[in-house]
């Protein structure tokens, strides 16, 4: 891998607890990918953000020992969700994009050129995460004369109040990456129902994990002792979510080992994925879904 510059130490220490710490894992994965010989996402914005965060890169690498080989798959997940979002934006020049649990993701920047006239993009996360985004000074996508607007909304996604602040006149794309597994089943199902009731038409794109993956990852967390959270909501078959609302239709289901871009991974990762795909408990450790409503 190409040489990665050390992060700059020019801001106050960052203190995150529980599941919020995982936003550093995804950021670290995109940072490493950017400096790899053959990047999968080539997210220069994430590289810039990581470079502003003290020694969090070294700390994250230490805490992820034994699991670093999984980071390219997290990057492929982000790439596929970006592609689905770009497809939606290509067909909806005027639309609302709601990015739930945005963390330190730079998706709004990566997809700015895909947004047409009249797109409203809203990043949503806990107040302390939104505050961290401002402290790190993650750039906001440029607003041009075409009516594009960007804003951040500070709220827990399981609270109902934030939804009433969102516009409802245009088709809506709701993105939530790395969120479902941290919610309780009750909160997760209620969130989907509220989104369906709030917006008239659009798509929801997100990832989830089955019970077998939840068990393995929670065991890993317990053995390592570095993290103060557990995975909660497991979805064995995302098609069952159609039962939550009569207007919910599954368009696309992609399992982890089938994500586009595997051909660009190192040979040993491709071999590992092939072997894992034949093991029942590892056959589908993560799935990505695109629903229409």
UniProtKB/TrEMBL annotation:
GO molecular function, one term: methyltransferase activity
Annotated keywords: Methyltransferase, Transferase
PANTHER family linked: S-ADENOSYL-L-METHIONINE-DEPENDENT METHYLTRANSFERASE YKTD-RELATED, S-ADENOSYL-L-METHIONINE-DEPENDENT METHYLTRANSFERASES SUPERFAMILY PROTEIN
Transmembrane portions of the chain: none
Organism for this UniProt entry: Metarhizium robertsii (strain ARSEF 23 / ATCC MYA-3075)
InterPro entries, per the entry: Ppm1/Ppm2/Tcmp (IPR007213), SAM-dependent_MTases_sf (IPR029063), TcmP-like (IPR016874)
UniProt protein name: Leucine carboxyl methyltransferase
Upper taxonomic lineage: Eukaryota, Fungi, Dikarya, Ascomycota, Pezizomycotina
GO biological process, one term: methylation
